């Protein structure tokens, strides 16, 4: 139990009143993911707690703060002196300062934005050069020649001099806030956040006896492996998997002596030196959830020319049949809320935060949702975008109506341009539909970003080449693509049914990595995939807007219209 502060209020719980102590919560978004916009996860949790009477909450986005810290004048000055013989970084301080100003200027052109982002990426290269353990970019965080085992993690997080995140946290953590907090909640949604998050948890424990609760999509994907990973509880007291709203409020009740710990849903905790799991599971009724709360977000810290907020219509995936995908594992099953409630949220955000651009983080919006939103959002006068699937229902008329409503961009998982491979993947579409949807979106002047991968088990070299030829054929109709090799991930259908795809699962040495090693007689070799991707980068992607110049989830496309981005495609040579 925690030592609660003696400050009480009455709280209504169904038909009964009980005496409830106020607990102070500090929510933290740790590094690392792209710093162009705030995450949706913590605002959802905060709104739910506030709806249930929990008011003492502070939210700190340490991810965007870390980027601002690492490319600050003060930090870069130290690095420039240290690496003064590297002529490439001679003007990095001046260039980065102007780039930060430019990338946040709401009148910046696409060409200027692209050039500014390239200068920031150069600054991050210098930060990485000086880092012992990490390579930091605008979109990613990778490790320098280390595995992600318990021993390696412990070595890195304990190194308070060479671990750049330990240095950052020591510099920026507000001890007064920590000392006045009872619970620190850390949201870990990406694998890239794991080491920074554990580094943070260790430092917090050194400063205060505060309880630490971690949750998020990444930890959910570890699932019951958490039971075999007592190391995680060296610096964390509780781990919540799945959807966190109800479990977090139940934990709040437990901390106030109003519930047994075994009754807290989706909870892992340590008891008697053994990791245990609560017997209760919960899933949210999404149509009853409150509007996410972004009150503590400082928008001018983000690397974006305008305010862009993430929003959702549903949780889970309405299709949920793709054999390679594990994204919906965090949500169990598909649930949606009404388009009217979504539009009501947009109106609230527009009024409260003066936000004009929104991006739906749903796995994919259903054509019926797109249709209803296109009718309801028009009066809001905003820009918006989303991910969609290649469906026959994405008609010419629907695309025209979407464009009129302010729909500027869409991300679509192409994956392959071969009907037999699409069937093998469980995509539920075909090449004819794909061509038609691209034509409909293009004719409506909606920006298109295609995603694909090569090397799916059963795909031949010629079929992989077909996918690249397809992208080459439609490159005048799309703005950007992102291509990679096939990755087998935990909790995907193939991972659970490897025999169906003649896949042999390899030995997993690093339990903290969601990528699963595998062998397959039917899959392309790494060398073959490398050759194909090299062709893609040199002969196809060079004619499109590079992923590093666009924001994750297509946020970049939400700001610029079709004509501006089409022009940028022809001007790439000016900044390359």
From TrEMBL:
<dbReference type="InterPro" id="IPR058240">
    <property type="entry name" value="rSAM_sf"/>
</dbReference>
<keyword id="KW-0411">Iron-sulfur</keyword>
<feature type="domain" description="Radical SAM core">
    <location>
        <begin position="303"/>
        <end position="524"/>
    </location>
</feature>
<protein>
    <submittedName>
        <fullName>Radical SAM superfamily enzyme YgiQ, UPF0313 family</fullName>
    </submittedName>
</protein>
<keyword id="KW-0479">Metal-binding</keyword>
<dbReference type="InterPro" id="IPR023404">
    <property type="entry name" value="rSAM_horseshoe"/>
</dbReference>
<dbReference type="GO" id="GO:0003824">
    <property type="term" value="F:catalytic activity"/>
</dbReference>
<dbReference type="InterPro" id="IPR051198">
    <property type="entry name" value="BchE-like"/>
</dbReference>
<dbReference type="GO" id="GO:0051536">
    <property type="term" value="F:iron-sulfur cluster binding"/>
</dbReference>
<dbReference type="InterPro" id="IPR007197">
    <property type="entry name" value="rSAM"/>
</dbReference>
<dbReference type="Pfam" id="PF04055">
    <property type="entry name" value="Radical_SAM"/>
</dbReference>
<dbReference type="GO" id="GO:0046872">
    <property type="term" value="F:metal ion binding"/>
</dbReference>
<keyword id="KW-0408">Iron</keyword>
<dbReference type="InterPro" id="IPR006638">
    <property type="entry name" value="Elp3/MiaA/NifB-like_rSAM"/>
</dbReference>
<keyword id="KW-0949">S-adenosyl-L-methionine</keyword>
């Amino acid at each position: 139990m925690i030592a609660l502060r003696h400050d009480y209020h009455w709280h209504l719980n169904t038909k009964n009143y009980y005496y409830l102590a106020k607990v102070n919560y500090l929510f933290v978004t740790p590094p690392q993911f792209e710093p162009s916009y705030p995450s949706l996860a913590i605002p959802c949790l905060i709104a739910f707690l506030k709806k249930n009477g929990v008011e003492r909450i502070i939210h700190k986005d340490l991810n965007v703060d870390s980027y601002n810290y690492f490319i600050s004048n003060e930090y870069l000055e130290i690095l420039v002196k240290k690496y003064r013989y590297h002529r490439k970084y001679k003007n990095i301080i001046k260039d980065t300062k102007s780039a930060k100003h430019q990338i946040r200027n709401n009148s910046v052109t696409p060409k200027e934005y692209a050039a500014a982002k390239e200068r920031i990426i150069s600054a991050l290269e210098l930060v990485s050069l000086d880092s012992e353990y990490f390579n930091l970019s605008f979109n990613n965080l990778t490790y320098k020649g280390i595995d992600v085992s318990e021993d390696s993690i412990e070595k890195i997080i304990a190194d308070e001099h060479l671990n750049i995140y330990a240095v950052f946290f020591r510099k920026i953590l507000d001890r007064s806030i920590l000392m006045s907090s009872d619970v620190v909640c850390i949201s870990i949604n990406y694998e890239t956040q794991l080491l920074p998050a554990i580094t943070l948890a260790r430092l917090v424990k050194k400063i205060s006896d505060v309880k630490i609760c971690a949750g998020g999509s990444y930890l959910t994907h570890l699932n019951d492996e958490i039971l075999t990973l007592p190391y995680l509880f060296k610096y964390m007291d509780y781990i919540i998997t799945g959807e966190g709203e109800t479990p977090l409020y139940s934990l709040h009740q437990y901390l106030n002596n109003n519930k047994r710990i075994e009754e807290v849903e989706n909870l892992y905790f340590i008891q008697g030196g053994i990791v245990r799991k609560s017997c209760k599971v919960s899933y949210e009724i999404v149509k009853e959830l409150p509007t996410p709360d972004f009150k503590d977000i400082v928008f001018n810290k983000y690397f974006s020319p305008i305010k862009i907020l993430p929003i959702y219509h549903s949780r889970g995936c309405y299709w949920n049949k793709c054999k390679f995908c594990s994204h919906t594992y965090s949500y169990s099953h598909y649930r949606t809320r009404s388009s009217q409630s979504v539009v009501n949220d947009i109106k609230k955000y527009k009024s409260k935060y003066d936000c004009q651009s929104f991006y739906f983080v749903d796995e994919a919006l259903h054509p019926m949702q797109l249709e209803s939103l296109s009718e309801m959002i028009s009066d809001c006068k905003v820009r918006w975008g989303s991910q969609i699937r290649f469906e026959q229902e994405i008609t010419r008329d629907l695309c025209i109506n979407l464009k009129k409503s302010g729909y500027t961009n869409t991300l679509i998982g192409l994956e392959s341009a071969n009907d037999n491979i699409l069937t093998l993947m469980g995509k539920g579409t075909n090449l004819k539909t794909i061509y038609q949807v691209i034509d409909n979106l293009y004719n409506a002047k909606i920006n298109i970003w295609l995603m694909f991968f090569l090397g799916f088990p059963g795909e031949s070299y010629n079929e992989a080449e077909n996918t690249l030829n397809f992208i080459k054929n439609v490159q005048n109709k799309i703005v950007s693509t992102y291509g990679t090799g096939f990755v087998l991930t935990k909790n995907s259908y193939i991972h659970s049914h490897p025999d169906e795809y003649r896949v042999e699962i390899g030995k997993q040495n690093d339990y903290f990595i969601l990528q699963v090693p595998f062998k397959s007689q039917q899959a392309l070799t790494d060398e073959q995939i490398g050759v194909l991707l090299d062709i893609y980068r040199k002969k196809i992607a060079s004619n499109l807007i590079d992923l590093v110049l666009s924001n994750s989830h297509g946020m970049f496309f939400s700001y610029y219209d079709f004509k501006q981005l089409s022009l940028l495609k022809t001007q790439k040579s000016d900044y390359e």
